[in-house]
Design brief:
This protein is α/β, with parallel strands linked by helices. 31% of the residues are buried. Strands 3-4-11-8-5-6-7 form a seven-stranded mixed sheet, sandwiched between helices. A two-stranded parallel sheet has the order 1-2. The protein has nine helices and eleven strands.
C-alpha cells in the first residue's frame, strides 16, 4: 500500500494540522495492508521534518491497530524540481524578503574563507546571521554531500532544545553521528576571591559546579526524543567556551556545528556577537545558527 498525499504542511502555520493529516492517512491505510505486507508513507511537506513525519506516521499505524518495522527511509531524487529566481536589489534585503515570501525556515549561504580554522564570512552572510528571521547555514568551502559528523553546542538555555532537535534531524537523515557538547567555564580564583570564599571552600565549590554541569548534561541528553543514532553527551572544561568548542571540533573532525543565537556563557548572557560570532569566524567546519523559537 503506497500513500503519497499532497503537501499537508507546506509552511510552519500548517504544521500541526498537516501532521494530524499524515497521522490520519497512516491510520486509515494500516488496515488495508495484508499481514506481512508493506506500506509506503510519503511526505513532500517542507515544514514537516523527518522526525515529526515519522512520529505522526507511527502514531497513525498504532491507532490503526497495526505494528510495523521501519525498513527504509528515502528522500527526494536528484531530478526533484528546484525553483530558481533572480532578484535585483540589495542582497540582504532580497534574501530576507525571499525568506518571508516563501515562508522559509532555513537560509543557506556560502561562507567566504570559512575553512582551515581561520576565516571571515562575507558582509552579507554576517548580516544574515545577525538579522535574518530564519535559521542560517553557512557552508564551508570544500564541503561535499551530507553532514555526517555533527556537533550541537548547548548551555541548557531554552534554545538548546531547538539546537538538538535540528541537529538530530540532520544526523538521522545522513546516517551520521551527533555529539551534544557543553563547555563548562569554571569561575576563576579571582572571581572567588571577590566573593570572599576561603581557598579550601573555593576548590570544593569549583568541583561541585563542574559535577553539577555534568549531571545537567546527562539529564538533558537523556530527556531528548529518541533518534538514530543516539546522541553522545560530551563535556569539556575550558577557560573559554569558544576555545573549548573549537578544540573539540578539530579533535572530532566535525563537518557541522550547530549553535544558538541566545543562551548563557558562564554567568553572563550570550548573544550573537560574542561566543557565537567568534565561532562563526573560527570554526573549522560549516556552521548552522538556529534562532530562539521564543523570539
Amino acid at each position: 500500500v503506497i500513500c503519497d498525499p499532497p503537501a499537508f504542511a507546506p509552511n510552519k502555520q500548517a504544521l500541526d494540522a498537516g501532521l494530524r493529516a499524515y497521522e490520519r492517512i497512516a491510520r486509515l491505510a494500516a488496515p488495508l495492508v495484508a499481514p506481512g505486507g508493506y506500506i509506503v508513507l510519503c511526505s513532500c511537506s517542507h515544514a514537516a521534518d523527518l522526525v515529526a513525519f515519522r512520529n505522526a506516521s507511527a502514531r497513525g499505524l498504532g491507532r490503526g491497530g497495526r505494528r510495523a518495522q521501519l525498513l527504509h527511509t528515502g528522500f527526494a531524487g536528484p531530478d526533484h524540481p528546484v525553483v530558481a529566481e533572480a532578484v535585483v536589489g540589495h542582497p540582504f534585503e532580497a534574501l530576507v524578503h525571499a525568506a518571508e515570501r516563501h515562508q522559509a525556515d532555513l537560509l543557506v549561504l556560502g561562507s567566504r574563507g570559512l575553512k582551515a580554522g581561520v576565516g571571515h564570512p562575507g558582509a552579507v552572510a554576517a548580516k544574515c546571521l545577525r538579522k535574518a528571521p530564519v535559521d542560517v547555514l553557512l557552508v564551508r568551502q570544500g564541503q561535499e554531500g551530507a553532514f555526517t559528523r555533527i556537533v550541537a553546542c548547548i548551555d541548557f538555555s531554552p534554545v538548546s532544545v531547538h539546537i538538538c532537535a535540528t541537529a538530530a534531524s540532520l544526523a538521522e537523515r545522513a546516517g551520521g553521528t551527533l555529539d551534544v557538547l557543553h563547555v563548562h567555564v569554571p569561575m576563576t580564583m579571582a572571581d572567588l576571591a571577590i566573593e570572599s570564599f576561603p581557598v579550601g571552600d573555593s576548590i570544593e565549590l569549583l568541583k561541585a559546579r563542574e559535577d553539577l554541569a555534568r549531571h545537567q548534561l546527562d539529564q538533558f541528553v537523556a530527556a531528548l526524543p529518541g533518534s538514530a543514532p543516539p546522541p553522545v553527551a560530551v563535556m569539556r572544561t575550558s577557560s573559554s567556551a569558544t576555545d573549548g568548542i573549537v578544540d573539540f571540533l578539530n579533535e572530532r573532525a566535525a563537518d557541522l556545528v550547530v549553535l544558538g543565537t541566545r543562551g548563557r556563557s558562564g554567568l553572563r548572557a550570550l548573544l550573537l556577537g560574542t561566543t557565537a560570532e567568534r565561532l562563526v569566524h573560527e570554526a573549522p567546519c560549516s556552521v548552522l545558527v538556529v534562532k530562539d523559537e521564543g523570539k
